[in-house]
């Protein structure tokens, strides 16, 4: 086992592989029988790889920012923190930042035993255009309510909970829908497994259902909460002792 506490040095991505500015930090290189390489790649706004393909494919894990990925013959797809992209062996593709935001992702790749390198192509947009949609719509949640409900207004609140604060067991008098903006939290409905919510994740707290955990982690959490309510109804949270 080897633990490296000091961040590795970043190097500029080669100009024949990337349009714009990008930096690569090597996190793991093949050692012994392992042929796995892990890099952190940071793209400046507007920077993108050229079309390329890997002999054994690649996995991308987005950690910061917003970007696009596209396989040849398919549409460009928006990617955000927490998204994972699995690129098939030999599949022509490109990835990079949007025009207005940076992008950071981990790139995980198994290297061929015979040393076959990644094959580079033309810059994205040359040959086959890299069409980036002007508008994208992604369905994040389609939640059925247990019974019809009269709703005449919806409250939207931005809620911030400081690090390591424990909300405790609680219920709401109506359904709550939420979307994490920053930070992360452990979320659990009583009697169900817990999950960790991060930026871009959505959640639903059913009406009158006991919420056992909504506990921010070390960085705290900020989220938008949507409270559908009926005539004369004020959304409320009730803390429970047990």
Descriptive report:
The protein is mainly beta. The protein has no helices and 19 strands. The chain has strands spanning 10-12, 18-19, 22-28, 36-43, 48-53, 58-65, 67-71, 77-79, 84-87, 93-97, 103-110, 119-123, 153-161, 170-172, 176-189, 195-197, 202-205, 211-229, 237-239. Strands 1-3-4-11-6-9 form a six-stranded antiparallel beta sheet, with no helix packed on it. It starts with 9 loop residues before the first strand and ends with a strand.
* Proportion of helical residues: under 10%
Number of strands: 19
* Shape assignment: elongated
Count of runs of 4 or more consecutive helical residues: 0
Structural class: mainly beta
Radius of gyration: 22 Å
The end-to-end distance, rounded to whole angstroms, is: 43 Å
- Low-confidence sequence ranges: none
The helix/strand order is: EEEEEEEEEEEEEEEEEEE
Mean pLDDT: 89
Order the strands across the largest sheet as they lie in space: 1-3-4-11-6-9
Taking the sheet with the most strands, its summary is: 6 strands, antiparallel
Strand content: over 45%
Summarize the structure.
This protein is mainly β and 242 residues long. It contains no helices and 19 strands.
How are the elements arranged and paired?
Blueprint: E1 10-12, E2 18-19, E3 22-28, E4 36-43, E5 48-53, E6 58-65, E7 67-71, E8 77-79, E9 84-87, E10 93-97, E11 103-110, E12 119-123, E13 153-161, E14 170-172, E15 176-189, E16 195-197, E17 202-205, E18 211-229, E19 237-239
Antiparallel strand pairs: 1-3, 2-5, 3-4, 4-11, 5-10, 5-12, 6-9, 6-11, 7-8, 7-10, 13-18, 14-19, 15-16, 15-17, 15-18
């Amino acid at each position: 086992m080897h633990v490296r506490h000091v961040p590795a040095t970043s190097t500029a991505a080669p100009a024949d592989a990337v349009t714009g500015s990008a930096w690569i930090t090597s996190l793991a290189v093949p050692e012994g029988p392992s042929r796995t390489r892990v890099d952190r790649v940071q793209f400046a706004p507007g920077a993108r790889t050229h079309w390329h393909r890997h002999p054994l494919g690649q996995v991308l894990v987005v950690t910061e920012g917003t970007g696009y990925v596209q396989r040849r013959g398919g549409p460009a797809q928006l990617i955000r923190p927490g998204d994972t992209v699995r690129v098939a062996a030999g599949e022509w593709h490109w990835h990079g930042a949007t025009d207005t935001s940076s992008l950071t992702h981990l790139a995980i790749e198994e290297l061929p035993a015979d040393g076959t390198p990644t094959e580079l192509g033309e810059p994205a947009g040359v040959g086959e255009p890299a069409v980036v949609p002007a508008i994208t719509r992604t369905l994040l949640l389609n939640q059925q309510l247990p019974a019809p409900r009269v709703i005449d207004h919806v409250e939207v609140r931005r809620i911030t909970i400081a690090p390591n604060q424990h909300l405790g067991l609680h219920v709401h008098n109506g359904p709550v829908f939420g979307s994490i903006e920053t930070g992360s939290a452990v979320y659990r409905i009583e009697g169900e497994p817990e999950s960790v919510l991060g930026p871009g994740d959505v959640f639903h707290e059913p009406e009158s259902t006991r919420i056992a955990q909504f506990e921010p982690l070390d960085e705290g959490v900020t989220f938008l909460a949507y409270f559908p309510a009926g005539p004369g109804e004020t959304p409320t949270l009730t803390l429970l002792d047990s």
